[in-house]
From TrEMBL:
InterPro entries in alphabetical order: TSP3_bac
Annotated compartments: Secreted
Protein name as it appears in the record: Lipoprotein
KW Metal-binding (keyword) present: no
Database matches in Pfam families: TSP3_bac (PF18884)
Signal peptide: 1-31
Source organism: Thiothrix nivea (strain ATCC 35100 / DSM 5205 / JP2)
Superkingdom classification of source: Bacteria
Calcium found in the keyword field: yes
Region called Disordered, residue ranges: 159-178
Amino acid sequence: MDKKTYITSRRTMFKGMVFLLLMQGCQIAFAVEGGVEYRIAWDANDSRYHVYMRPTSTPDPDLSLTAQVTLRVPHATAGNRFQVTDIQPKPGTAWKLGSNVPAPVENPLYDYLSFNYDADDAHAFVFKAGEEQEVFSFRNKGPCVGDVELIDNATDPFSQPSGNSVGTNPRNQFSNTGWGSINDNDYRGNYGEPASCSAGCGNTPVAPLADHVYYRVAWNISDQRYHVYMYPGSTPTRNLSLTGQVTLKMPHAANAADSFKTTGIQSTSAAIEWKQSSRVNAPTEDTGSDYLSFTMNLSDPQALQWQADQELEVFSFANSNACLGPVVLMKDSDPFNAIPNSADTNPGNQFTNLGWGSADKNNYAGNYGCEAVCIDPELDSDNDGLTDAQEAEIGTDPQNPDTDTDTLLDGEEIARGANPLKADIVRLQARVMLQGAYDSKPN
């Protein structure tokens, strides 16, 4: 007997035993009141999302049969999508990603991911009242797109008793015979906060220091530009800005023609000129990244009107080549920032204002905010006639040319005035009939 046959036989035998136990109701103790709550958390140490469960009581008997955990994540397109990988289950259990619905019409700002439990061992959880345990964890292969949340069965627009636009049942669910019958849903709600993959990923730095300034870069989908911001921890006693440098890093392109190309640098002040002063592609310290440094030239040292805890935009620019991935500010700890570096440059972020100290002091203290994640306005990942940006607005899947599986491309349906999220019934029925004809076998 090979391993696959053994596992299948074992699961069949196990499920049969559970059924027999349930049929012998007279020999099983009465179920207790209670259920289980869910929580999700991000762990920066291993860069993984961890899913936990906490029972409100100890089930008797403790036989866990089925479960579903559904998360919602901010919707993104192409290579910026949230992509589940490396699911690691609690020993004795098996979890898989059973459903992935991108940007449904009920809530197009989110993608919905449902994980299903396969009961290899109904006793695997060993629930004890009030004791939390981790049930599985996973990684996101894509960039950090924002907070990951467990759905609320009662309030989430995609989880309604009347059904949803794609015909799925995304509701969180758990079934344990010790809390009721097989058909009961023993899920009792969520606890904890949303899982944030980047602490302090907002428009303000955490606990900013006086006499220092912090940097942020952001992507604006409306103007297709990168915007650079600065945040002062205090108002300078004498507002005399002298020098400044901002260094960004982005993915290195294998094809030089696709490399990030800065264009249209615009300063927010007529008295300040920002220019790209240095570029180093794929240095030995980080061959997967390119480094671009921008420096500031002032005709008026008071051009930047600093106010404590008030963010200022300082300049913006565009990329005239392909969208390769997230753009980030270089950190002080970046390997390319160790002087001397392989390119014999000084890429460190820097700012000096005499109101925050002497002329030789670097007032730059760190970065805040999220990665600047671009969306290529011309990219059509699935070649369906709609750009990824258009599909993000419509709610169709940029990785699937026929989102509603009715044999019409999404772009073709838009051109016809049809709904690419709702299958053309006539075409769908024809396809089913043809499929049946091909699949049928003579007796």
